[in-house]
Amino acid sequence: MIEPAAVAALAAVAGGVVAVTARSGRTIALGLAVAFAAAPLAASPLPGQLGLFARIAGAVLAADLLWVGTRVNAVRSEGSAIGPAAEAAIAAAAFLIGLWVVPVKPLPGPATEQAAGLALVALAVIPLVGRDVLRLGIGAALLAVGLLLLREAWLGPAPAFEHFTVAALLVGILGATSLLVVPLPEWRDDAESDAAEEGMTALGAVTGAASAGAVTGAAGPTSERAPSVASAPAAVDYLDDVPDAADAEIEVPLPRPSPRSGSMVRRTRNPRGSEPRQ
Are the beta carbons of 13 and 27 closer than 8 angstroms? Predict the structure, then answer.
């Protein structure tokens, strides 16, 4: 005959696996609620009515706080870092080890309670080493529940005030997590849109500069004509603006004219109004 404590232990482990592998906030909250509510039922004997009520009420309240926080901020978990199959394998291996290893003889609580506590502790390790605030909160809550299961399995039933303390601890952990979670998808969309905007601006500037250069280069040969040989000055006077300076002429060599341009005529400019020399 299957004992109710064994069924509750399996339900607690299954809820923990769902919580660490799910991406939706509603699914995570559901998995945590199942794990938190089934954990006190894995003990033998069962806790008192007051302690049991405190644990179940705390489980529902903590899961509801997390669900509301993820729904308001539109946050989704990144999921398991190693995959759902690997998480389930780790939980199953830890559960089997808990059934086989007996560190305390005789064991005050059922072996299934110890196995469930060890499995929840193993599931909490990977979320605790990450940087996701949501997964950190999930790992911390599972670690607290798993350690309490191990404490009851090794030391006997917990008193009522201890159940109240655990319920308040779970509500505090998941309440703080719901306040600290950041809407990562929206932040990533804003960052990607800003980066795309900057890239388009830079691309537009580069394209505009290139097109302007192309237009200038294309218009240069057609809009300007090379000066002819006849119109090019042959002498330049650099001392026009210098007072009491002697007139000087600097002859600039001109290119050799083509046969059609005729003879080369050298022109001079006299700043004092004299007639040009022939």
Answer: no
